């Protein structure tokens, strides 16, 4: 049985760099292009991002626009942003960036998380009216990303306050960026009905959630291949890959170039690969709040 990784697998998911070689079938990417994306790290020997060289699917990379650093591109091209993209534009079928102006209310539960920060920006780019929850010290920052209103998730009345903010157009869709310790139930309290997308498996019945549909997603399925995950065989989802590829090629570079999709606040650790362990400890100690750790090799 294969779990997250085995000896010999390379860790790391998010990357940005210069193309050194391409396969004979690749037409839209050439040697020397600056690209970014994410891979299924800790799973295979030759695709992890914690390496000087890695192998990536050309269909899933996007070109880094001028003025964007490799560190910023690696953060934007990573698992966090791809998860938000998959949730909003595939699972919830929101209008593509620049193509909608519905002013529909949308809830990002825990907007200060990595996925949450990207979800706020992308939802705003889709023409949605965005409300999020976070600790009070993060409210102004999240509004700078595009959130129309922020509420404290610790407030016992957060559900009624969000509903009051939404007004006559109730919230129908939500992305729960925590998906544990009661967060999904908290998000459900802000809604009468609709759908909550979760990043971890949530048993709605056990949580006592009856008013909304709860759906989990796993961004690794956008790779388009089958794989084993915690002992469960995940089938190939070619439609997931087709969506991710189309979105990457059509929208991400332009969103980044226009400033409508910005990286999480970055913390660069010096020292190359030797600093990865330092970064792991930093995260384990809970210090990486609202930050994206980046390394250069």
What does this structure look like?
With about 300 residues, this protein is α/β, with parallel strands linked by helices. It has 2 domains: about 15-75 and about 230-265, no CATH class; about 80-215, 3-Layer(aba) Sandwich (Rossmann fold), CATH 3.40.50. Helix content is about 30%, strand content about 15%. The protein has 9 helices and 13 strands. The protein has helices at about 70-75, 80-90, 115-125, 140-145, 160-165, 185-190, 205, 240-260, 275-285, and strands at about 15-20, 35-40, 60-65, 105-110, 130-135, 150, 175, 195-200, 215, 225-230, 230-235, 265-270, 290-295. The strands form 4 sheets. Strands 6-5-4-7-8-9 form a 6-stranded parallel beta sheet, sandwiched between helices. A 3-stranded antiparallel beta sheet has the order 1-2-3. Strand 4 (about 105-110), helix 3 (about 115-125) and strand 5 form a beta-alpha-beta unit. The longest helix is centred in the last third of the chain and has 21 residues, at about 240-260. The two termini are about 30 Å apart. The mean pLDDT is about 95.
Q: What fraction of the residues are assigned to beta strands by DSSP?
A: 15-25%
For the record, the CATH architecture of the largest domain stands as 3-Layer(aba) Sandwich
Helix content: 25-40%
CATH topology group of the largest domain: Rossmann fold
State Rg: 19 Å
Order of helices and strands: EEEHHEHEHEHEHEHEEEHEHE
Number of helices: 9
Number of domains: 2
């Amino acid at each position: 049985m294969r779990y997250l990784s085995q000896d010999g697998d390379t860790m790391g998911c998010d990357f940005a760099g210069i193309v050194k070689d391409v396969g004979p079938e690749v037409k839209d990417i050439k040697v020397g292009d600056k690209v970014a994306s994410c891979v299924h790290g800790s799973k295979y020997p030759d695709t992890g991002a914690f390496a000087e060289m890695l192998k990536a699917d050309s269909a899933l990379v996007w070109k880094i626009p001028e003025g964007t650093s490799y560190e910023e591109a690696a953060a934007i091209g990573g698992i966090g942003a791809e998860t938000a993209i998959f949730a909003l534009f595939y699972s919830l079928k929101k209008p593509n960036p620049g193509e909608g102006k519905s002013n529909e209310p949308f809830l990002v539960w825990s907007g200060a998380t990595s996925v949450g920060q990207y979800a706020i920006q992308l939802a705003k780019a889709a023409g949605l009216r965005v409300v999020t929850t976070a600790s009070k010290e993060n409210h102004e920052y999240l509004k700078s990303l595009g959130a129309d209103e922020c509420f404290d998730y610790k407030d016992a009345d957060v559900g009624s306050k969000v509903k009051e903010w939404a007004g006559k157009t109730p919230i129908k869709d939500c992305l729960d960026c925590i998906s544990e310790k009661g967060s999904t139930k908290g998000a459900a309290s802000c809604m009468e009905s609709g759908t909550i997308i979760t990043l971890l498996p949530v048993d709605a019945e056990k949580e006592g959630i009856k008013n909304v549909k709860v759906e989990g997603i796993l961004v690794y399925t956008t790779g388009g291949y089958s794989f084993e995950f915690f002992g469960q065989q995940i089938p190939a989802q070619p439609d997931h890959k087709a969506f991710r590829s189309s979105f990457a090629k059509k929208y991400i570079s332009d969103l980044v170039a226009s400033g409508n999709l910005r990286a999480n606040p970055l913390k660069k650790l010096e020292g190359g690969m030797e600093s990865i362990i330092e970064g792991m400890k930093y995260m384990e100690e809970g210090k990486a709040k609202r930050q994206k750790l980046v390394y250069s090799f």
